[in-house]
User: What shape does this take?
Amino acid sequence: MAQRYALMIAPADAADTRDDYSGTFTPIDVTAPALSVGELSTQRGDGVFESIGVVDGHPNEVEAHVQRLAHSARLCDLPAPNLEQWRQAVTAAAAHAPLGEGVVKLILSRGVEHGPAPTAWATASSAPDYTAVRRDGVRVVTLDRGYDLGAGERAPWLLLGAKTLSYAVNMAALREARRRGADDAVFVTRDGYVLEAPTASLIIRCGDEFLTTAPSAGILHGTTQLAVFEHLESQGLATRYAKLSATDLATADAAWLVSSIRQAVAITAVDGAPLASDPALTAELNAFLLSPR
Amino acid sequence: MAQRYALMIAPADAADTRDDYSGTFTPIDVTAPALSVGELSTQRGDGVFESIGVVDGHPNEVEAHVQRLAHSARLCDLPAPNLEQWRQAVTAAAAHAPLGEGVVKLILSRGVEHGPAPTAWATASSAPDYTAVRRDGVRVVTLDRGYDLGAGERAPWLLLGAKTLSYAVNMAALREARRRGADDAVFVTRDGYVLEAPTASLIIRCGDEFLTTAPSAGILHGTTQLAVFEHLESQGLATRYAKLSATDLATADAAWLVSSIRQAVAITAVDGAPLASDPALTAELNAFLLSPR
Assistant: This one.
């Protein structure tokens, strides 16, 4: 996922209504220094981000991503982003993504310590080759997230519904999963409910119904999960937000981790016990997710 | 706390035993770009740090800070820092701190995504003027940390004992405290125990005894708390690590938040209820903490 293009964004006020924000974008050399050591993104993980899948130059689900960026900014008391400016930044960056699969990443940082304004930038990269994992699936382990299911609503300062730059725990959970011989992790609450993966949402199938954990402040609302649910519903399939126990996952008829870049991957084992999978549906979901949307 | 000096550090292997690491330090312009947008510190808060108090050019508690940097790095699966290199970096940066009170900050980041090595740097800044708050104290609110007291030991991937760059929650808690009309926060576990403040340790006095929360993986082990305990013990006073309930704090005979830069500040109110304080002891603690150690 080597970055190939980046532009700095001079954040416009949310109330600004100009048509063309290209004058607020400054392309930079991705390998050159661009951020000062006073940046609060780097000192404290203090900012929010989005990763957008790009297929043959077309960024997918842009509106869901910029809306979530604004939601995350609100939870973090950051100045409201100008959504049209960010839409145009996505377009500008996506134009430099490679053919095939790419990534546009948006970052809104609180800025330089005691500085006047947030720092913002967008990057374009090629995506890793996920062909094999989309075909073969992932083995997951369940990892305690420490919180109970109500923590997010009870304590909004825990920022559980914001996609912040403070991702050290997510990265540590992925390392722990690999140490246990698995490929990925699913976080479980102290009271035994499954939440999400460190960088993906969880969808399970029980009988004829597709289920995901309700995003009631305790988890991110996954943009890819939303797209998959809309797709399933358009085919007349039943979807539902629910409280899902760890047992629901272990006994599911099929389960997937879904995210914007890796897309849909089947969970083939949970804590070492095999889980049924549905290769035809997985392939169909990925065909949908990789089409221009 | 405007930064006035910074140096990049080319991390040496922990097994390296040279005498002089000055050749691995590169002074940089603190206001100029120094970090690429691919930095994992900035993308994911993926790294560890320390803030060291400097008084008239003398950095305090250096050994405790570099040892904790190494401890945090170990919890985050980062390459072991070369302690002698970091000690020399502290000395080099502290030489550029202002007269009076300053700060040397150490940062060890996982580096550029897919890059070959961690990124590391140190900065020197002047400290804010904390004279008034050391005299007048702080009003705190207790804020739910979401976890129970055992979470850190049970789930080391939550990194509760590491001083990581993922500080968004700590910053959000401080904003929440100010929204509630207070100056600072004390985190409380789901099961009712007090932990620490977002950027400080908690010490309370109950009768003749000074108590702090046991750092059993659930909180950082405060370098300033350690120094204060040693100081109190040297005067024949009793200190103890304990499980402290929110009621223990609310009914304490006195309480302080202690940290490396602000030093010791009395807690004068908890959730709006006044708390007794001991101005003479607070002043004496600060005189000790601000002396060269």
